[in-house]
Amino acid sequence: MSSSDIYRELILDYYRNPRNFGKLDPRDIDARDSNPLCGDEVEIQIKVSADNKIGEIKFLGKGCAISQASASMLTELAKGKPLEWAKELSKEDILKMLGTSDLGPARIKCALLSMKVLKSGVYEYLGASMADTVDH
Ligand code: FES
User: Fold this and answer.
1) Domains of the chain
2) Which of 1, 26, 115, 118 has the highest count of CB atoms within 10 angstroms of its CB?
């Protein structure tokens, strides 16, 4: 099996058996976005732990195998990490997570959708909690 076959198998496995699929209630972060090219969606919900880490994380969504597998893998990778870690995530980190570097431009958008959602949720939360600190 070539390495690109292995990555395809892995993506299909996460697509068919998504880890951390579902909702969190209560939750501190709830962010969603869609890929404008196709309308596919990813929503990420997070419960932040007392030490500002990603305590629990789940995702919801509908779309292609890459967008949904990437979201599921990202929840596994993110669990237990500091919120600051999410701010530093890069395209390279996501490609490494997916085990490939040869996605075309359209597929890159699919792969990066969940990172975009995670970052926007974390930034919004950190912005809000900073505003809380200023208020009190
Ligand atoms: Fe829609 Fe991949 S085709 S996110």
Assistant:
1) 3-130 (3.90.1010.10)
2) 118
